[in-house]
Amino acid sequence: MGLFYPDLNGMGPGGTPDLREKRGLARFWEILTRDTWGLLASGLLAAVSVVPYVIGNMVSIDSHALLPMFITAPLGGMLAVPQLCGAADTVLRALRDEPGFWWRTYRRAWKQNVKGCLLPGAVGGLLFAIQIFILCQINVETVDLLLLFAMLLGVFVATAIATWLLPQLALMDLPTGRAVLNAILLSIRHPLKTLVATLLQLAYWGLIVMAFPDTLILFVLLNFWLPTLVVEMILYSDLDETFGIEESLGVPDGDGE
After folding, report:
1. Other CB atoms closer than 10 Å to residue 238's CB: what's the count?
2. Whole-number Å distance between alpha carbons of 119 and 52
3. What average pLDDT does range 87-114 have in this prediction?
4. Partner residues linked to 11 by β-bridges
5. CB 74 within 8 A of CB 126
6. What is the DSSP string of 125-177?
7. pLDDT tens digits for 152-190?
8. Between vectors from CA 199 to CA 166 and to CA 206, what angle results, nearest 5°?
9. Ramachandran assignment for 240, one of left (phi > 0), alpha (psi -120 to 50 degrees), beta (any other)
């Protein structure tokens, strides 16, 4: 359960079920208090695994050397994305109200998804690293505004695609090209939700990076689980409609069907 409940054994509902469907902040609070430990633990694992990626990028940015990034970024992405996928899987199961011990479920899902995460991790890690490197090297006072807009748009598009891609890596075993195409099509099909989810993530990470190290404690506590939970709450109904999450997670309903 969660921090505020007596059963600390893991994910899932307990006690007398509340049959009323909660939405918005009420649903967020329900998941947060019920699945506290699973969310915190999966987020912490993702945060620890992303440290080599961050260090590699910092070394390249500080040395103004792009070449080392072509080595550290793909390797760091391959190391980090399986845990990011694990955090996404944890959130999806929480949104599904799936019972079960979190660590056992996490390990099983991690083993199933790790191979499918390696290529997206390498490519995505390199793409985001190059974008960050370029943005850190530009002179805001002299840069052409059109060029700056194009670079920021590229970051937005990449983040939007990643937002729809990560749940697919957690849910299914798809070829990377097919999963990316799905992400692009979903971004186009649901422009408003894509816009909101992407802007929220960029605002969150922008705050963490720009105010660092003052935001270090904030990152340690909230890291990846909070933006993942908020974003997947926004996208869940469309993900379920498209990919059948209720069936994919393989947990029977309460009536046994």
Report:
1. 15
2. 17
3. 89
4. 100
5. yes
6. HHHHHHHHHHHHHS-TTTS-HHHHHHHHHHHHHHHHHHHHHHHHHHH----HH
7. 999 999 999 999 999 999 988 889 999 999 999 999 999
8. 95
9. alpha
Q: What is the dihedral of CA 116, 195, 27, 97, to 10 degrees?
A: -20
| Whole-number Å distance between alpha carbons of 63 and 160 | 30
Distances (CA, A) of 220 to 116, 165, 211, 216: 27, 25, 14, 6
Q: 171 near 198, Cβ under 8 Å?
A: no
d(CA 17, CA 52): 42
* Global pTM value: 0.84
Q: Which two tokens stand for residue 25?
A: 């902040």
Sign of CA dihedral 47, 49, 53, 59: positive
Q: What angle do CA 167, 172, 177 make, to 5 degrees?
A: 85
- The 3 state secondary structure assigned to 127-140 is HHHHHHHHHHHCCC
Q: How many CB atoms lie within 10 A of CB 147?
A: 11
And the tokens for 58? Answer: 């910092």
Write the DSSP symbol of residue 35: S
Helix (H) or strand (E) segment spanning residue 26: helix 24-34
CB contact at 8 A, 171 and 245: yes
Compute the Cα dihedral for 117, 210, 184, 31 and give only its sign: positive
Residue pair 69/96 in contact by the 8 Å Cβ criterion = no
SS3 95: helix
Mean pLDDT value across residues 218-225: 92
Distance between CA atoms of residues 105 and 244, nearest Å: 19
CB distance 133 to 60 below 8 Å: yes
